[in-house]
Amino acid sequence: EALEKFSIVKTLQAIEAANVVLLVLDAHQGVVDQDLHLAGLIIESGRAVVIAVNKWDGLEKQEREWVATNIERRLPFLSFAKTHFISALHGSGVGLLLKSVKTAYGSALAKIPTPQLTRVLEEAVADHQPPLVNGRRIKYRYAHLGGKNPPRIIIHGNQTEATPNSYRRYLENYFRTALKLQGTPVMIEFKTSDNPFRERKKPAENPQEKRKRIIASRVKKK
To answer: Helix, strand or coil for residue 141?
Structure first.
């Protein structure tokens, strides 16, 4: 038990220290419980990830189809990650694997300007409007980058805290596709703030100043 805890701690440390995590699966076993646990830790850390399915060359066509389906079924939360079928022994597919690692690294640390994020947000809302809350439509005003590795997009607007999870996932996928972010999760955070264009209540006028203004107005009329 002590050895298992030590192994988990070392795994967590390795994930936190990495910019891109390479999740290696055994093609002969498919996705086992240990793989699921590791994948969960990767998601919690927010790290970019690339999936490598090793020993692929030793499988028949039917077995390969089963493995591909098994990965899609058991790791749907890693659908943003690129999957490579490789043979470490013979080196096949390794070149493309390293290319995906580089792409994921670039996506995780991408510098995205506020105007671009706001434009993508406007396009996402135009394609699919957010739901109504108490008869009022949730309104998003602008978006900016709040952090990297993973990209953390902060969306400002009215009633944003009422955004349902389904619409949050829609925005995550929309931003990832529009910005061509590959291999990295995209975090969306909402900030609700007052409408800056809302008419503000004017401060009460001083009685003496009010009398002077009325008198001055009457003098002008004469």
So the answer is: strand
**For position 83, which CATH number holds?**
3.40.50.300
Boundaries of domain holding 54: 2-108
Return the residue matching tokens 């400002």.
156
Looking up residue 146, the CATH number of its domain turns out to be: 3.30.300.20
Domain identity same for 85 and 11: yes
Q: Which two tokens stand for residue 103?
A: 């792409």
Q: Write the pLDDT tens digit of every residue in 99-114.
A: 999 999 999 999 999 9
DSSP string, 155-193: EEEESGGG--HHHHHHHHHHHHHHTT--SS--EEEEEE-
pTM to 2 decimal places: 0.78
